RNA sequence: GUGGACGUAGCUCAGUGGUAGAGCCCCGGGUUGUGGUCCCGGCCGUCGUGGGUUCGAUCCCCAUCGUCCACCCCA
């Protein structure tokens, strides 16, 4: 009479122990790198008022129009599971009165939610590393921020990513350009495909991004964004490129790079890879000088980016650097009731005396064969055998489990911790090496 | 939301119009207290679900759900 099993929610994945080390590696690199660049961690809620996202991301974007997990809570409030992090981060900076002339370099990691149809590299719950520099007009911060993303790839050992760069200009310049573009597109309305027709009024810049080959000729003939940049944005963009060159960071100018989120202005960038199929954007971001005001704060320039952790982890999997499997350091085995009872306190003592070492006690009984099998599978290089006879004499057997790791020796229970510590000290490096 | 492929043991997969198998995993044994190799044995499935065709379906047909991939969108 087994009950019907409950399936996981579509597009939401379990992270199993086997995959955890890669995530931990990515998280560790993230912490260290952002620390090194002067960024501080901040944590914001996963749920926000729906209006926040409508105002920040734009009502007519796909994300807001059809991908948000929105609901009304018991108090009747319209809430949404965050589809991205920037809106919440900016909201938090405003809510907490952090603006007043101060500048902030902030980061945050966590789950985001978008109701999309899952496929390779795309999930309904996914995770982003989100980095925001608020109160900096650039272009120096733009360059530093992009250098930071490049450092990520270096530290993670990820190659085969390319940087695409563009400038959208100020909101005003963009508006003017948009007029030009819609004019041009309206004149060629007959050549537009279905998607493009839909975008024509709502978000015409996105048409430039179309992958439809039939649209390419039309797009090629369209008024180009770079030519309509305002003078200041152009200077900003030119300077940014010079700085990137000085940093030795290669990039491709991509005049058709338009972000799907409305809040971007001036610098936009995106790192793509060819290794992940259709979902090729691995990190993207840009400047959002107007967003703070849009959300009710005093005018403050800002720039940020988001990195898709699932996609980065997938890239990590393809690389050579497989993290070592997690292994125990010591496995305790006991024969007989009295020994089994003495084992737990001994394990506690060892854990207390040897912080950082993984000490596993055999749980659930079993004969020696079974217990040693477990010891072997735990990956421990060392077993500590508590037998009935030894127990009465106050000793235990220290038994190396791996080839060439020495012979078993008898040790006193009273000084077990020092004996274990010494055993590890005597090993050639690699055996039971402690991770930082 | 649209399209395509695929759903058989925990995992990877064979297979047949007469209600199923392999390998791995797991458990036990190979001298009373010593693992990893080897040998022997054992456990495991409503063949995704519902309906139809048929004397009979895991196999054929339809629907449905799920997974994956692509479009779209984006990290």
Briefly summarize what is shown.
The protein is α+β, with helices and mostly antiparallel strands and 436 residues long. The protein has helices at residues 20-36, 50-57, 62-66, 86-95, 140-156, 171-187, 194-202, 216-220, 231-247, 291-294, 309-318, 337-353, 368-377, 388-392, 416-426; strands spanning 40-41, 47-49, 69-72, 78-81, 104-113, 125-134, 161-167, 252-253, 265-273, 281-287, 302-308, 330-334, 359-361, 382-386, 395-400, 409-412. Helix 1 (20-36) packs antiparallel against helix 5 (140-156), helix 5 (140-156) runs parallel beside helix 9 (231-247) and helix 12 packs across helix 15 (416-426).
Give the secondary structure arrangement, pairings included.
Layout: H1 20-36, E1 40-41, E2 47-49, H2 50-57, H3 62-66, E3 69-72, E4 78-81, H4 86-95, E5 104-113, E6 125-134, H5 140-156, E7 161-167, H6 171-187, H7 194-202, H8 216-220, H9 231-247, E8 252-253, E9 265-273, E10 281-287, H10 291-294, E11 302-308, H11 309-318, E12 330-334, H12 337-353, E13 359-361, H13 368-377, E14 382-386, H14 388-392, E15 395-400, E16 409-412, H15 416-426
Parallel strand pairs: 1-5, 7-8, 12-13, 12-14
Antiparallel strand pairs: 2-4, 3-4, 5-6, 6-11, 7-9, 9-10, 10-11, 14-15, 15-16
Helix pairs in contact: 1-5, 5-9, 12-15
This protein binds one RNA strand of 75 nucleotides through residues 7, 10, 61-63, 66-67, 84, 112, 114, 116-122, 126-129, 195, 206, 211, 259-261, 270, 277-284, 305-312, 333, 335-336, 367-377, 383, 385, 387-389, 397, 399, 401-403, 408.
């Amino acid at each position: 009479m087994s009950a019907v099993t409950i399936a996981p929610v579509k597009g939401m994945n379990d992270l199993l122990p086997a995959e955890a080390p890669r995530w931990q590696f990515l998280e560790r690199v993230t912490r260290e790198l952002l620390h090194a660049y002067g960024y501080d961690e901040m944590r914001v809620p996963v749920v926000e008022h729906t209006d926040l996202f409508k105002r920040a991301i734009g009502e007519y974007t796909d994300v807001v129009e059809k991908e948000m997990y929105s609901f009304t809570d018991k108090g009747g409030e319209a809430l949404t599971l965050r589809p991205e992090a920037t809106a919440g981060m900016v909201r938090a900076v405003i809510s907490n009165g952090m603006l007043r002339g101060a500048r902030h370099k902030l980061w945050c990691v966590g789950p985001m939610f978008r109701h999309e149809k899952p496929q390779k590299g795309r999930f309904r719950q996914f995770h982003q590393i989100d980095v925001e520099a608020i109160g900096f007009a650039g272009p120096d911060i733009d360059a530093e921020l992009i250098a930071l993303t490049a450092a990520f790839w270096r530290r993670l050992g990820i190659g085969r990513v390319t940087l695409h760069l563009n400038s959208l200009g100020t909101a005003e310049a963009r508006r003017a350009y948009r007029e030009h573009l819609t004019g041009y597109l309206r004149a060629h309305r007959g050549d537009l495909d279905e998607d493009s027709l839909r975008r024509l009024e709502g978000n015409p810049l996105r048409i430039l991004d179309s992958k439809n080959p039939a649209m390419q000729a039309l797009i090629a003939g369209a008024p180009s964004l770079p030519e309509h940049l305002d003078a200041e944005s152009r200077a900003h963009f030119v300077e940014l490129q010079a700085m990137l060159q000085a940093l030795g960071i290669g990039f491709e100018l991509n005049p058709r790079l338009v972000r799907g989120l409305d809040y971007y202005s001036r610098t936009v960038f995106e790192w793509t890879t060819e290794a992940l199929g259709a979902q090729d954007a691995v990190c993207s971001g840009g400047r959002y000088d107007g967003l703070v005001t849009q959300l009710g704060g005093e005018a403050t320039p800002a720039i940020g980016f988001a990195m898709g952790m699932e996609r980065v982890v997938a890239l990590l999997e393809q690389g050579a650097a497989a993290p070592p499997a997690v292994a125990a350091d010591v496995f305790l085995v006991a024969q007989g009731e009295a020994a089994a009872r003495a084992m737990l306190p001994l394990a506690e003592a060892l854990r207390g005396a040897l912080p950082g070492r993984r000490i596993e006690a055999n749980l659930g009984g079993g004969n020696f064969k079974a217990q040693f099998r477990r010891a072997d599978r735990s990956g421990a290089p060392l077993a500590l055998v508590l037998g009935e006879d030894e127990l009465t004499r106050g000793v235990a057997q220290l038994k190396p489990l791996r080839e060439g790791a020495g012979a078993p020796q008898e040790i006193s229970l009273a000084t077990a911790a020092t004996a274990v510590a010494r055993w590890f000290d005597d090993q050639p490096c690699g055996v039971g090496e402690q991770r930082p």
